[in-house]
Design a protein that fits this description.
This protein is an alpha/beta fold. The protein has a single domain (2-153), classed as Rossmann fold (3-Layer(aba) Sandwich). The chain is 39% helix and 20% strand. It is built from five helices and six strands. The chain has a six-stranded parallel beta sheet with strand order 4-3-2-1-5-6, with helices on both faces. Helix 2 runs parallel beside helix 3 (84-96) and helix 4 packs parallel to helix 5 (136-146). The longest helix has 17 residues, at 19-35. The two termini are 24 Å apart. It holds the Pfam family YpsA. It comes from Solibaculum intestinale. InterPro entries: YspA.
Length: 164
């Protein structure tokens, strides 16, 4: 199953002017993964890139009904502090996904890192949106590289390189 699994990690804040381009790249990379035999896609349920990735998988599921969206959620209180629209989007994704699990019932120090490690540990591929070299996304991408995952970064650097 691991060889057929791709996880996502990325920043919560996405520049609005990049949104359409990132969605286009997500569709392209996910479709390429499907054509290589990947059927399981894991997302962490966070705002920003996680939400974009989950919604893209759900949209592509209409064309590729064999694919599955699995949410690995840090805790049952993840949406505390989110606005009503964000919570509604989260609940809609949860209802539409194929499976979801919680790392913890309540927020604990480290539950986000544990969620990220779980996503990586169960995957062979990682599609990310990484623009900074610090924070949770940077940690997760480095962890994925150490674990030998093939990592594709949808954020293009000045040199045009998309490899994380």
């Amino acid at each position: 199953m691991k060889k057929q699994t791709c996880c996502f990690t990325g920043h919560r804040k996405i520049p609005p002017e990049q949104y359409e381009e990132i969605i286009k790249r997500l569709k392209s990379e996910i479709t390429a993964m499907i054509q290589q035999g990947v059927i399981y896609f894991g997302a962490g349920g966070a705002l920003g890139f996680d939400t974009m990735a989950a919604q893209t998988v759900l949209a592509l599921r209409e064309q590729y009904p064999q694919i599955k969206l699995i949410l690995v959620l840090p805790c049952k209180t993840q949406t505390r502090g989110w606005n009503e629209e964000e919570k509604a989007t989260y609940e809609n994704i949860k209802k539409a996904c194929d499976k979801y699990i919680y790392i913890s019932d309540a927020y604990t120090y480290g539950c986000m890192h544990e969620r990220n490690r779980h996503l990586v540990d169960c995957s062979s591929y990682c599609i990310c949106y990484l623009t900074k070299h610090s924070g949770g996304t940077a940690y997760t991408v480095e962890y994925a590289k150490k674990k030998g995952l093939i990592v594709m970064n949808l954020a293009v650097s000045e040199s045009g390189n998309r490899k994380a």
